[in-house]
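Hi Y.,

Following your request, here is the sequence exactly as I used it, all 74 residues.
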Amino acid sequence: MGRSTKVTNAIRALRFAHGEMTQAELAERIGVTRQTVIAIEQGRYSPSLEMAFQIARALEVPLDAVFRYPDEAA
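Below is the corresponding structure, written out as tokens. Let me know if you'd prefer a different format.
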């Protein structure tokens, strides 16, 4: 968890759009700690592919609505 990732996410905005879901509620739904959700939201930790799908499912959105990887040209 030392270096940050290029992957960005919209978890915080999607949590609020999904009935103001708390970090703790999301963590419980995907089976991790609140601290893990915080680290993912802040881009300090990249979730596994399985966890990424669980996050998208919990927020009821497609995976690419949650996570973005920048284009090299950008």
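Helices lie at 11-17, 23-30, 34-41, 49-59, 63-66.

Thanks again,
Q.
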